[in-house]
Amino acid sequence: MTSGELIQVRRSRLGLSQEQLAELVGVSRQAVSKWEVGDALPDTDRLLPLARALGVTVDQLLSGQMTGAESGGEQQGQATCRKEPGWFALHWYWLGLLPVAWGCYMLLNLLANLVSVCMFIR
To answer: CA-CA distance, 48 to 34, in Å (whole number)?
Structure first.
């Protein structure tokens, strides 16, 4: 279910017209219509009032998913499987430390060589 479909379903279940919902959220009826057909998305400053007016969370509003009790059995029989990201997806930034560590090693090696040359020259 898209966010627009969720807005339309929740609005109709609450018995609200597009005008009434628009008034609760502080936008025009045309904005609500555009949200429902998917031509536009609500501005971020309108997400919380919209979610409150529809009785859903902002997360549910953005994902377009209602909980089982609220969906009225529409998604019954659909298994939801969320795949957790793997170790690499969560820790890829550690690979950036490899070039940094190598650079530090090379810099220290260069400094040690410079010190030994300076000692040799004296």
So the answer is: 18
